[in-house]
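Quick one, tokens below. Sequence please?
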């Protein structure tokens, strides 16, 4: 219903600036189109919401080019994205059960935090019926945020009642998640801690539970993957959860998808590499192959669709889910500081500062 408005707005922008899109914008557009076009089942298409339709109409790209480069760029397809939608919503409910219902208290705002790290043009903050008080933080490139904000503002996009969408510009955080190719340029300006600084400015609180979504990371190199999950884990407190796209085949485990039971345990199980990497940063995780994400277990239409995109199977391996087992870095630093104060009697009569 908003396609005409979005198309007219895009046309006016083209008249003002005919320069080609940057690598970040081009990658975000391909990610959006790939998510919308890679599902063969119309009932499960991610493009079912009007906000995604508006973004597609405003930034229409060539379908064949987007599909051909989707695997190279490590982008998540429609099946993976839909699975992450359901997982994120379900895990937020689980966090609320532990932190609110079990304690017989209701806490709004920062108690309900969802952080999405992707190539951009993510519409989860608008199309998913988050509980009231949820803040959705979207981390991607600044220019992608600017473009998405303009298009969605023109179509009247609003988050669910009582929720907020907080755009977190973090240049380099997502472009460095892919290997250097002819269609993307690896950023050299991003440094560890930039994501934390950007999130804190947007109001993120690392001392309360959160749910993280890591998308479009199928082609991330092993070194960058470890840096990414370490940085994410440092920003998650105990009982926070993370769901994401299983990265390169080297992290999926020796057994790959075939013959896997999906438990994520043992060297031969699917996702064993992801499980080990997560354990290092204090996250207890499990991984699930893409064949387990469909109702028929990969048979029927889902199986036929998989055969039709064989060239991209190694980039759509599956998803993982993990729960943080230890405090965030800021919490740990605070505890160490308080212990030091107590041991050296620098605080009040009981040895603590407050």
């Amino acid at each position: 219903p908003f396609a005409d408005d979005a198309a007219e707005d895009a046309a006016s922008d083209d008249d003002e600036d005919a320069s080609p899109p940057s690598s970040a914008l081009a990658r975000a557009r391909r990610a959006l189109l790939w998510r919308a076009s890679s599902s063969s089942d119309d009932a499960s298409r991610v493009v079912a919401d009007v906000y995604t339709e508006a973004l597609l109409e405003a930034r229409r790209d060539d379908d064949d080019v987007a599909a051909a480069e989707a695997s190279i760029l490590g982008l998540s397809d429609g099946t993976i994205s839909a699975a992450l939608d359901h997982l994120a919503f379900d895990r937020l409910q689980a966090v609320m059960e532990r932190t609110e219902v079990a304690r017989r208290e209701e806490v709004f705002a920062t108690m309900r935090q969802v952080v999405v790290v992707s190539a951009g043009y993510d519409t989860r903050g608008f199309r998913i019926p988050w509980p009231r008080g949820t803040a959705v933080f979207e981390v991607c490139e600044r220019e992608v945020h600017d473009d998405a904000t303009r298009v969605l503002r023109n179509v009247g996009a609003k988050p669910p009642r009582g929720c907020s969408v907080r755009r977190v510009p973090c240049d380099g955080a997502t472009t460095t998640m892919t290997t250097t190719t002819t269609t993307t340029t690896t950023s050299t300006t991003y440094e560890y801690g930039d994501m934390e600084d950007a999130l804190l400015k947007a109001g993120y609180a690392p001392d309360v539970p959160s749910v993280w979504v890591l998308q479009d990371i199928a082609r991330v190199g092993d070194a960058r993957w470890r840096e990414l999950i370490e940085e994410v884990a440092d920003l998650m407190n105990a009982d926070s959860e993370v769901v994401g796209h299983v990265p390169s085949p080297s992290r999926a485990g020796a057994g790959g998808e075939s013959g896997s039971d999906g438990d994520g345990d043992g060297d031969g199980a699917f996702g064993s590499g992801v499980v080990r990497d997560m354990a290092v940063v204090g996250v207890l995780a499990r991984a699930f192959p893409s064949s387990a994400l469909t109702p028929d277990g990969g048979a029927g239409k889902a199986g036929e669709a998989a055969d039709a995109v064989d060239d991209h199977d190694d980039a759509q391996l599956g998803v993982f889910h993990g729960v943080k087992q230890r405090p965030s870095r800021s919490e740990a630093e605070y505890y160490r500081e308080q212990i030091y104060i107590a041991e050296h009697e620098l605080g009040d009569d009981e040895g603590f500062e407050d």
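Residues 78-101 form the longest helix (24 residues). Strands lie at 112-117, 134-140, 164-169, 210-214, 241-245, 283-289, 318-324.
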